[in-house]
Give the backbone structure.
Amino acid sequence: MGTAAAEWTATDEGRGHRPAGGRSGAWCAGLLLAGVSVVAGFRAADSDGITPVPQLLAFLPWMLAPTAVALLLTLLTRWWPGTLWGVALLGVLAWYIEPYGTSDEPVGRPVADFRVLTSNVEFGQGTPALVAAVRREEPDIVFVEECDHACDARLKRDLARDYPHRRAVEGGGSEGSVILSRFPLRPADGVRATMGMPGAVADVGGHAVRLQLAHPMPPLPGQVDLWKRELGDLREAARTDPGTPLVLAGDFNASQDHAAFRRILDTGLRDASRLDGADRTATWPALTAPAFGAQIDHVLVSEEFAADRTRILDLSGTDHRAVVTDLTLHEGS
């Protein structure tokens, strides 16, 4: 910025003349570039930082827009150091927008196929739409977040016949969560958290598959440390019993641009959306997705799984879109 300011102190004899308004344009460009650089810097440092960084990191791909505006302003005002800054920043953002994590195919022979659906029904308000989607999509396992008492009762009434097996943490508002299954379930330790995160082990055609629902607290101002801690607890759960295939699904309140979420992937899990080419498809907020939003609802699977036909579904009554994917379990290597 010092270079730009110095140029505008030149005399009116033609040396360093700039168009009217050039100084304010360069300052606006500098402020935009500085703000985006802070967010990109934390991404490069593999850190989620403090408020407002974690909130902005969820929308990292959209940082391209203010960067492009800033770059245009540097060109219009002929602030060439700013132009170089903007071009470099665009390159950094483009690098980190690339999908994170591995996408290798399993090496063993396929032994079982099943379908998974996960949906945050926003305090139970999206339950009727979820029931309709379940009947239409016919998943074998359903993960439901923010399933309040009324939601839980509705699922028992309308889906118990098709999904006789369940594990739940009952609660009001956002605290309740449910896993529904066509397959027999046996109890397993869930993750203790502010909102319900039940666990189970499913018998899928004679093969044990661990199920863990994810619903950590969102990174609200003043609660970022809690958010990080609960994502860390999910990471520890993912590392438990590595010999059993795992499906970890739900509303993570985090995208691949959050370091705490990437550390879960670094345990060896893969995102079904990444495996099937649906990465970066926004799931929240439903009001503006898919045009604008973040992918914070995920189906994560261990290396024994392949994913196919991953779809993002719009459901009325909730601010989240549902994720449904077809999984194929392979024999471990």
Remarks:
- Residues 1-16 have pLDDT under 50 and may be disordered.
